[in-house]
Write a structure and sequence with these properties.
The complex is a heterodimer. Chain A has three helices and ten strands, in the order βαββββαβββαββ. By secondary structure, chain A is an alpha+beta fold. Chain A has one domain: Aldehyde Oxidoreductase, domain 3 (Alpha-Beta Complex). In chain A, the strands form three sheets. Chain A has a four-stranded mixed β-sheet with strand order 1-6-8-2, with helices on both faces. Chain A is elongated and about 50 Å long. The two termini of chain A are 30 Å apart. Chain B is of the alpha+beta class. Chain B has one domain: Ubiquitin-like (UB roll) (Roll), CATH 3.10.20.30. Chain B is built from two helices and five strands. Chain B has a five-stranded mixed β-sheet with strand order 2-1-5-3-4. In chain B, a hairpin with a 2-residue loop joins strand 3 and strand 4. Classes of the chains: A alpha+beta, B alpha+beta. At the A-B interface, strand 5, helix 2, helix 3 and strand 9 of A face strand 4 of B.
Amino acid sequence: MMKAKDIQIKEIPLDPEWCRTFVSDVSCGGQVTFTGTVRNHTGDRKVERLEYEAYVPMAMKVLEQIIDRAGERYPIIRCAVHHRLGSLELGTSAVVVAVAAAHRKEAFEACMFIIDELKKDAPIWKKEISPQGDEWVSSRP
Amino acid sequence: MKLFITCFGPAREITGQRQLELDVPGVTTAGALRSYLLNTWPDFRSLDVVRVAVNQAYAEDDLTINEGDELAIIPPVSGG
């Protein structure tokens, strides 16, 4: 059912447009691309940048399993998930999830499912660098 | 049985090491390893959850671990 998936975890800048192009397909009328970027605050805390690390080989496997689970739930045709590592300045793209399906509803839902599951299960960590003290972030379900 | 365990994120700061080398009798399951870690470094108890990965997959507590397995401590994740 799924024609192609692409998973990357890397230290170099992400390219959301590349992901969007990767998932485009004439059989798909809906392409949804989610881009998560570095925000300048968490609640009342000021955030200056984020530092990401990952257990890369396991994270690659977990992301593949998440995409496969998304493919069992939603008729998605193509999918790309890219995650950035290292020290990221404000506004930088940290994650891109691109999904294509025949119709918009399943593309939106599958994209949401993948980013939600990524946040719950992918062995990736971020530390907020803040003038109020650096802090590892705990996932907030 | 000699075990090598990689520590990520906050687990690395709690243990002070990226890689632990343990040789503890009785630590033969993922659950026993988790208990050992929580008892040895009580700061782990401040985390919401501490999972153990065996050969790059999350392990249930009753999973047997063997010498040569790839082991990792997985503190609460925060990707995305």
